[in-house]
Structure formats: C-alpha cells, structure tokens
From TrEMBL:
GO terms for molecular function: isomerase activity. SUPFAM superfamilies: NTF2-like. The keyword Ribonucleoprotein does not apply. This is Ketosteroid isomerase homolog. Gene3D superfamilies: 3.10.450.50. Residues 31-149 form the SnoaL-like domain. Pfam families: SnoaL_3. Keywords: Isomerase.
Length: 167
C-alpha cells in the first residue's frame, strides 16, 4: 500500500509525537532540530543539513557501506544529485527522550522523489538519531537508518511496508 501522495510539495508532516519529558525545553529544541534538518533534506540544502550534525558523527545510512566514513558534505551532495527536484519527507511516530546533555529520537520516515533516471523513490524506513548538547545547541552525533528484510531466505529488503496508523 502506497502513501496517499508522494509529491515533494506536500511538505514535511510530523505526526504521532510522544516524548519522555526530562526537560521540556530540551525536547522542544530537539524537535525543532529534527524539523529543520528534515526541511533541509526536503530542499536538498546541503549546508543547512550539515548544520544539524556535530563535527564528528557516526552515520549508518541505508546505502553502503555499513558505516560511512566519507565526509558528510560529500555524502549529502552525492545523494542529492541522484534526485530531480525536491524530496518528499515525512516523519511519523516521532519519540524524543532527553536527559542532561544527551538525547535520542526514533521515528518511521517516508522518503519519496524522482530519481535522475526517472525512477520513483518511495520508501518507509526506521531512523534513530542520537544528540549531544554542544555549546548550548543540540547536534546529531549518530544517525541510524534501516529497513527490515524478509527472513524467508530471499534476504529481500521489505520496501513495501508502511508503519502502523498512529492516530
């Protein structure tokens, strides 16, 4: 079952947010970071996307390798070049937990757009982000994206899944 729309112009939708409130202002600040980072992804704005990451971060993106060691700027520029126009991006079921100078979030994210070869990208994936407060600002220090795979012997990525309805 496909999402009702995959147009990039639909904008960012964040739904079903829950939080563990150790510090409500910190949770709100992290939510704002996620909003702004996702908007940068939608607009393929490399510099804005970079601004939400710590100078040193660990990144497990969906594409190979298992852990990227390439500079984040290069990674983003190369990935964004594979799409024509803006990207559709939805964050669903966002949960944020913050305590002290560390926090994490997890969500189901939907990415869609038109690849430069004309193919339509349309995938739901799981994302966990870890944050550290650096110089008074919350920055992403670890990003982990994944899709499940069918454990039926085929090892096919389960790209046809969608998250449960979150109200």
């Amino acid at each position: 079952m496909k999402a009702s729309s995959n147009r990039a112009t639909d904008g960012l939708r964040i739904s079903g947010m829950t939080t563990t409130l150790e510090s409500p202002p910190d949770v709100a600040a992290i939510h704002a970071e996620i909003d702004a980072w996702a908007d940068a992804i939608r607009h393929k704005d490399v510099n804005n996307a970079l601004s939400h990451f710590a100078p040193q971060s660990v990144r497990f993106f969906m594409g190979p390798p298992l852990e990227t060691d390439s500079p984040l700027k290069d990674n983003l520029e190369n990935w964004f070049r594979t799409f024509d126009g803006e990207l559709g991006y939805e964050v669903r079921g966002l949960t944020i937990t913050a305590s002290g100078d560390l926090a994490y979030s997890h969500s189901f994210n939907h990415l869609c757009g038109t690849k430069t070869d004309g193919q339509q990208a349309d995938v739901w994936f799981r994302e966990t982000l870890c944050f550290r407060k650096i110089g008074g600002q919350w920055r992403i220090v670890h990003a982990h994206e994944s899709v499940p795979f069918y454990m039926d012997g085929t090892q096919r990525a389960a790209l046809d899944l969608q998250p449960p309805s979150l109200g």
